[in-house]
Specification:
By secondary structure, the protein is mainly alpha-helical. The chain folds into two domains: about 425 residues, Hydantoin permease, CATH 1.10.4160; about 45 residues. The protein is globular and about 70 Å long. The structure holds phenylalanine (PHE).
Length: about 475
C-alpha cells in the first residue's frame, strides 16, 4: 500500500501544531499556571518542555520517519521478534480512549457556539450559568448529538487522507485560530482592570511552587505536546527525509507554548476585569467566561469567537487522535482508509456513551471512586500516557539506540545535530526517570506508600536516585564504547 505524505512544510507544521494546540493549552495551562505561582511555574514549564518535551518529540518523529509505519508497525519493523510493538498498542489504545471523551468536551464547545451565536448564552443571568452548564451536560440526547457532530467532522477530515484531509484543513484552521486569539487578546487586555489578570498570570510567586508543581509541569508538557500516544510518531511517518526534524520539533513546541500563553492573556485579564474568581476545571470556560462575555459590550459576538477558537483547537487535536488509530488499523489489518475511519468513529461514539451519561443519568456509577468520565481521564492522563512515554524513551534510548535515533534526526547527517549528547542523556536517563516520578505521584502511589510506612516514600525516592545513577553509568559507558550502531 502506498503511503501518503505531507505535501508542504507549512502543512506539516500546521498539522503537528494543530495536534499539540488543544483544550490543554486554552483551558488547562492558564489555570495551572495561576495556581502554581504564575511566572514561576511558566519558567519551570519552559525548562520541562525544552529538557524533556522536545527530545521526546524528536524521538517519536524519528521512530515514525525511520520506519515509515504506524505506531504499532514502527516497533515491529525495528524489533520484529520482540514484544515492543505492545508499546504501540498501549499508545493507540490511549489515543482511542482519550478521543472517546475529548470529543465529548469538544461537543459541549460546539453546543456553546450555537448558543452564543443566537445570543441565548449571554441572556442567562451570571448566577444561573453554573446550573445552565450543568443542565446542558446532564442531558442525554443533546450531548450525544454534538458528540456525533464532532466525530463526524473529524472522520470527514481523516477519510480524505493525510495530504488532502489532515494537512489541508490544518492549514486553513490554524491561521484562523491565531487571528481569533489575537482579536480576543486585544479585547481582553484593553478592558479596565485587565492588569490584575496579567499580574495573576505573570508575576512570579516562588512560594506557590512545590515539587508537585514541577511534576505537574512535566505531565502537562507531555499532554500539551501530544506525546506518548503515537501521534507524533504517526505524523513522523508522513515526513520526508529532507525535512529538518530538530527545527520542526522546536517550531511545534514554540507555537504550542505561544498559544498557551496567549490563551492566558485572553482569559485572566477579562476574568479579573469583571471581578470574578478564576476557578478550576471546566467551569472556567463554561461558566466563568460566559459571565464575562455577558458584561462585555458585543458580548455575544466575542463569546462566539471564543468558542469557535476552542472548537478549532479541539478539532485539530481530535483529527490527530483519530489519524493514529486509523493509520494503525489500515496498515496492520489491511483495511481501507474509509472503512477503518467509519468503523472506528462508530466505535468511538458507542464507547463515548457511558462517559456522556456519567454527567447525567449515570452520575451515580463510580469506578474506584470516580465517575466514568473522570476515571477515563485519570486512566489516560496519569497512567497510560506516562507509561507509553516511558516505554518510548526506553525503546528509543536503549533498544533501538539513541545513536540510531540521532542518525535519523539528523537525516543521516544531512543536518547537523549538535545537541546529540544532551539528547541521548535525556531519552536514556532524564526523561524515563522524570516520567516515572509523575507516574508515582499522580497515581497516588506515593501517598499510599506513606500510609503504609512513613519512611517508605523516602526509600522509594532513594531507589529512584540510585536507579538514575545506574542508568547514567551505563549511558556514559555505551556512549564511550560507541555501541550498537546500525548495520
Ligand atoms: N495536545 C492537546 C492539548 O493540549 C491534547 C491532546 C492530547 C491531543 C492527546 C491529542 C492527544 O489539548
Amino acid at each position: 500500500m502506498k503511503r501518503d505524505n505531507f505535501g508542504t512544510r507549512l502543512g506539516l507544521l500546521a498539522a503537528a501544531a494543530g495536534s499539540a494546540v488543544g483544550l490543554g493549552n486554552i483551558w488547562k495551562f492558564p489555570y495551572i499556571t495561576g495556581k502554581n505561582g504564575g511566572a514561576a511555574f511558566i519558567l519551570v514549564y519552559l525548562i520541562c518542555i525544552v529538557a524533556i518535551g522536545v527530545p521526546v518529540m524528536l524521538s517519536e518523529f524519528a521512530l515514525g520517519r525511520k520506519t515509515q509505519a504506524n505506531a504499532v508497525g514502527a516497533f515491529k519493523k525495528l524489533k520484529p521478534k520482540k514484544s515492543w510493538h505492545l508499546t504501540g498498542v498501549v499508545a493507540v489504545s490511549t489515543a482511542f480512549i482519550i478521543l472517546s471523551y475529548y470529543a465529548i468536551i469538544a461537543g459541549w464547545v460546539l453546543s456553546y457556539i450555537s448558543k452564543a451565536v443566537t445570543g441565548k448564552l449571554t441572556s442567562v443571568a451570571p448566577s444561573a450559568l453554573g446550573d445552565y452548564f450543568g443542565g446542558i451536560i446532564s442531558q442525554t440526547i443533546q450531548p450525544l448529538f454534538w458528540n456525533f457532530v464532532v466525530l463526524g467532522i473529524t472522520a470527514f477530515v481523516v477519510v480524505a487522507g493525510v495530504k488532502d484531509g489532515v494537512e489541508k484543513y490544518s492549514k486553513i484552521l490554524m491561521p484562523i485560530l491565531f487571528v481569533l486569539l489575537i482579536v480576543l487578546m486585544v479585547r481582553s487586555v484593553t478592558l479596565d482592570g485587565a492588569s490584575k489578570g496579567l499580574e495573576f498570570l505573570f508575576k512570579p510567586d516562588f512560594s506557590q511552587l512545590t515539587p508537585a508543581s514541577v511534576l505537574e509541569a512535566v505531565g502537562h508538557a507531555f499532554y500539551s505536546l501530544s506525546l506518548g500516544m503515537g501521534i507524533i510518531l504517526t505524523y513522523g511517518s508522513y515526513i520526508k527525509k529532507e525535512e529538518n526534524l530538530v527545527s520542526l520539533a522546536l517550531q511545534v513546541t514554540i507555537l504550542d507554548t505561544l498559544v498557551a500563553l496567549m490563551a492566558g492573556i485572553v482569559i485572566f485579564p477579562a476574568v479579573f476585569a469583571y471581578g470574578l474568581e478564576p476557578n478550576a476545571g471546566p467551569a472556567l470556560i463554561f461558566v466563568t467566561l460566559p459571565a464575562v462575555f455577558k458584561s462585555m459590550p458585543f458580548g455575544a459576538f466575542f463569546a462566539t469567537l471564543f468558542f469557535v477558537l476552542i472548537a478549532i483547537a479541539a478539532i485539530t487535536s481530535t483529527i490527530s487522535l483519530l489519524e493514529v488509530v486509523v493509520a494503525c488499523f489500515t496498515e496492520q489489518f489491511n483495511v481501507n482508509r474509509k472503512k477503518a475511519t467509519i468503523l472506528i468513529s462508530v466505535a468511538l461514539f458507542v464507547v463515548g456513551i457511558p462517559s456522556t451519561l456519567s454527567f447525567g443519568v449515570w452520575s451515580g456509577i463510580s469506578i474506584f471512586g470516580r465517575s466514568i468520565f473522570d476515571y477515563l481521564d485519570f486512566l489516560t492522563s496519569n497512567i497510560l500516557l506516562p507509561f507509553g512515554g516511558i516505554l518510548v524513551c526506553i525503546f528509543v534510548g536503549w533498544v533501538w539506540g539513541a545513536k540510531n535515533a540521532a542518525k535519523e534526526i539528523s537525516s543521516d547527517g544531512l543536518f547537523s545535530f549538535k545537541q546529540e549528547k544532551a539528547y541521548s542523556f535525556v531519552v536514556k536517563v532524564l526523561a524515563p526517570v522524570a516520567i516515572g516520578m509523575i507516574f508515582l505521584y499522580f497515581t497516588g502511589i506515593m501517598s499510599k506508600l506513606k500510609n503504609v510506612g512513613p519512611m517508605l516514600p523516602n526509600i522509594v525516592l532513594g531507589a529512584i536516585g540510585l536507579l538514575t545513577l545506574v542508568l547514567a553509568f551505563f549511558h556514559f559507558k555505551t556512549e564511550n564504547s560507541g555501541a550498537s550502531e546500525e548495520a
